[in-house]
Write a structure and sequence with these properties.
This is Thioredoxin domain-containing protein. By secondary structure, the protein is an alpha/beta fold. The chain has ten helices and 16 strands.
Amino acid sequence: MATFTNLIIKPLHTKLPTTNFSSHTNPKKLLSFLPSTTTTTTTKPQTLRRPPPLSAASTATGAVEKDADDRVKHVHTVEEFDSALKDAKQKLVVVEFAARHSKQSSKMYPFMVDLSRTCNDVVFLLVLGDESDDTLELFRREKIEKVPHFSFYKGMEKIHEEEGIGPDMLMGDVLYYGDNHSGVVSSSFSGEIFRVLVPVVQLHNREDVEKLIADHKADGKLLVLDVGLKHCGPCVKVYPTVVKLSKQMETVVFARMNGDENDSCMQFLKDMEVVEVPTFLFIRDGEICGRYVGSGRGELIGEILRYQGVRVTY
């Protein structure tokens, strides 16, 4: 758990269960950057080496990569990078800082391509640090020392970053920071396509909370309000569970608020006496009937069931 009063929280690199997956990406089109196999595990970052001079063949490879995966923009200069962040405005921008020599980078890239095809409100960028001196300079400016490294930006501001993560954690980060509650996230694991609806209501101020409570005051549904902070590792870790539960529990309404999004959210959390995150508030008939503080999947499910009237034995 993270202390609520400490708003500058370094992300926790929690190791999640690794998952094998296959991609629709054609490895022949992507040539040397992507391997023909796409089995992915939690990765160990590699130190970036100085790039060798680009040959004509490697330059052509970059062009093919861009054509093959037009949803992932291949950035070649600092100017292109800054322009992409500016053009994205308030959309989430996910950047994979990678290297051609890194097997871990090439294993994660197909999964990012899969995400880019279904998360239309998220901008995906690829920067190869060993491509040229220009990209190496960008690595230095962004303080990237090891690859693969994922950075998340909104409004040209870096809001989160991860090193050595696997597909599950990347998807969780995109869901958490992408505000993608109305879309469908899909990807392929072990040859099977999974589609996940994301019906989690996003709350951006106190008025949003009050309206949601009023809308469900008479229908008897349990409202589960997930309260977190932007840079809270446990909040990110538990959010994919919240998304899955929101799809499976039709009689429960799930919502989320980041306390450090603005002053209104911060004041609401103080009024609710939230001192640690993630905190889950359970609301029924317009009243807070309980809360759970923590990121344990089993404990969260147990608490929801308990407030649904299901007897739970620990």
